[in-house]
């Protein structure tokens, strides 16, 4: 299939209701954890996304049969344990697939997994993953771009997993998935606290693991001999939920977002409040009314429960039409700013000083040909285009398909003027 683009005609307030899908960033490690199961797993809320398809292909290579039933639930069953090789061709398409390493090592004692490789949002090392697995007793070598890990038996121990910008989400997940079958008790200090880490822990517990403290910086895992299959439902996608709320606010619309977990978005909702946005929350919905232009705020991204880096770009699109000057600093991925140049092409005023951006609100944006460089940058450009005068042609939307299920279909249902069409224009080499 050739490349595609979105053609968006802006200027229509979004109106109506939208239901949030299951969380991509919870579903991916949960699917990887099915490698550990001695029986079938039945998982609900796995979103229909490119990243999920890529992981399903990798798991297929690793002997885990993944099938999506008519109800949308995903059945996962280990059918063979012969091959523990995750090739570069697939791992390089989706970094999160690196989290098959922990479960392979724990369950099969051997794994050969490609290093993830480069990423548009910045430097993304895996040293913390390897540090944790080595601490559990794995013999790990890096050869020709591959991690080769061996361990007859992993042994529980204390592991400090803090890194230069705090804890690692998938690093915590990888080590947790290895420690559940280790001999003895493991304590992960400075673990990531994201809701996706808690969801993975709950899935492992549903399979029979013994884990305490998920959601805090100190996770205690008592190794068990085996894990069974289970039935489980993935949490809603907090990043997708907030993206729809920001789109509603930016277009001056009235949108009710359903199947949302507001407690997973406290820092974001607090920023909405600070910006003077009109919204109502209750336990499973948030209604956004974008009647007011957001007031300037200061925004720094942090590990959970701080403001998530994955919402930095969509929030920047919203504040491009805000009042005054909003300051953005991304402490997690300081170089995650490829959307800035594209927003400026649409008339946004952004002053960048090293990794800090000052966004000076403008009265209007203009439609323009722009390009997505990564998933969340793509979402930001969709939000900007929905507000802009005239038409925007947004290219490289394959980035968006990685993390937003049926994005244009749901925006259409909220009254947006958006269509997907083949992108005839020749593909330019990415600007480095
Ligand atoms: C997860 O990536 C998410 N991906 C990312 O979402 C998200 O941006 C990120 O967490 C931070 O919230 C998934 O869950 C699939 P990290 P992850 O390891 O786990 C440094 C999206 O848009 N670090 O928590 O790979 C790293 O450089 C994606 O959906 C090390 O130094 O991120 C970064 O600065 C993009 N050494 C920080 O930690 C390591 O070994 C946080 O990274 C690992 C990470």
Overview of the structural elements:
Helix 1 packs parallel to helix 2. The chain is globular and about 65 Å long. The protein contains 14 helices and 24 strands. By secondary structure, it is of the alpha/beta class. The site of ligand EPZ has 29 residues, from helix 1, helix 5, helix 6 and helix 12.
Topology record:
Elements: E1 4-9, E2 15-19, H1 24-33, E3 41-44, H2 50-61, E4 64-68, E5 74-78, E6 85-86, H3 88-91, H4 101-108, E7 110-114, H5 127-135, E8 139-143, E9 146-150, E10 158-160, H6 169-179, E11 185-189, H7 195-206, E12 210-212, E13 218-222, E14 231-233, H8 238-251, E15 254-258, H9 266-274, E16 278-282, E17 285-289, E18 298-301, H10 312-319, E19 325-330, H11 338-345, E20 349-353, E21 356-360, E22 369-371, H12 375-387, E23 391-395, H13 398-401, H14 407-413, E24 417-422
Parallel strand pairs: 2-15, 3-14, 6-7, 10-11, 18-19, 22-23
Antiparallel strand pairs: 1-23, 1-24, 3-5, 4-5, 7-9, 8-9, 11-13, 12-13, 15-17, 16-17, 19-21, 20-21
Bound molecules: ligand EPZ.
Ligand EPZ binds at residues 25, 28, 95-96, 121, 123-129, 163-165, 168-171, 192, 196, 308-310, 332-333, 375-376, 403.
In short:
The chain is an alpha/beta fold and 432 residues long. The chain contains 14 helices and 24 strands.
Rg for CA atoms = 21 Å
Helix share bin:
25-40%
The total count of helices amounts to 14
Low-pLDDT parts are none
Trace the largest sheet across and list its strands: 22-23-1-24
Give the bound compounds. Answer: ligand EPZ
Terminal Cα separation, in Å? 26 Å
Largest sheet: 4 strands, mixed
Q: What is the tally of beta strands? A: 24
The SS-based structural class is alpha/beta
State mean pLDDT (0 to 100 scale). 95
Name the beta content range.
25-35%
General shape: globular
């Amino acid at each position: 299939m050739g490349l595609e683009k979105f053609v968006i005609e802006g200027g229509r307030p979004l109106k109506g209701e939208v239901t949030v899908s299951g969380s991509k960033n919870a579903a991916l490690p949960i699917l990887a954890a099915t490698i550990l199961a001695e029986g079938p797993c039945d998982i609900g809320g796995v979103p229909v996304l490119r990243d999920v398809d890529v992981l399903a292909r990798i798991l297929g290579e690793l002997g885990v049969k993944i099938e999506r039933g008519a109800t949308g639930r995903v059945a996962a069953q280990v059918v063979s344990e012969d091959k523990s090789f995750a090739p570069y061709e697939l791992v390089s398409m989706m970094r999160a697939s690196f989290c098959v390493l922990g479960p392979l090592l724990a369950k099969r004692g051997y794994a050969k997994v490609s290093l993830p490789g480069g990423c548009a949002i910045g430097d993304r090392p895996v040293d913390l993953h390897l540090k944790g697995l080595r601490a559990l007793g794995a013999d790990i070598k890096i050869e020709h771009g591959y991690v080769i890990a061996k361990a007859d038996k992993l042994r529980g121990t204390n592991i400090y997993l803090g890194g230069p910008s705090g804890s690692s989400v998938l690093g915590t997940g990888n080590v947790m998935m290895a420690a559940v079958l280790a001999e003895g008790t493991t304590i992960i200090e400075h673990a990531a606290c994201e809701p996706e880490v808690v969801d993975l822990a709950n899935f492992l517990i549903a399979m029979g693991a013994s884990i305490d403290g998920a959601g805090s910086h100190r996770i205690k895992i008592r190794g068990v001999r085996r894990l069974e299959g289970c039935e489980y439902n993935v949490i809603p996608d907090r990043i997708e939920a907030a993206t729809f709320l920001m789109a509603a606010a930016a277009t001056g619309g009235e949108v009710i977002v359903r199947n949302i977990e507001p407690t997973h978005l406290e820092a974001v909702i607090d920023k909405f409040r600070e910006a003077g946005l009109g919204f109502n929350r209750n336990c499973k919905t948030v209604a956004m009314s974008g009647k007011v232009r957001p007031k300037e705020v200061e925004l720094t991204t942090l590990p959970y429960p701080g403001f998530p880096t994955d919402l930095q770009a969509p929030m920047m699109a919203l504040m491009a039409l805000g009042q005054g000057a909003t300051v953005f600093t991304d402490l997690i991925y300081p170089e995650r700013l490829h959307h800035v140049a594209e927003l400026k092409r649409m008339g946004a005023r952004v002053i960048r000083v090293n990794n800090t951006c000052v966004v000076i609100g403008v009265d209007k944006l203009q439609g323009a040909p722009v390009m997505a460089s990564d998933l969340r940058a793509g979402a930001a450009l969709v939000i900007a285009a929905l507000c802009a005068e005239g038409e925007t042609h947004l290219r490289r939307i394959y980035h968006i398909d990685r993390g937003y299920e049926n994005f244009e279909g749901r925006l259409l249902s909220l009254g947006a003027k958006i269509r997907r069409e083949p992108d005839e224009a020749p593909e330019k080499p990415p600007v480095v």
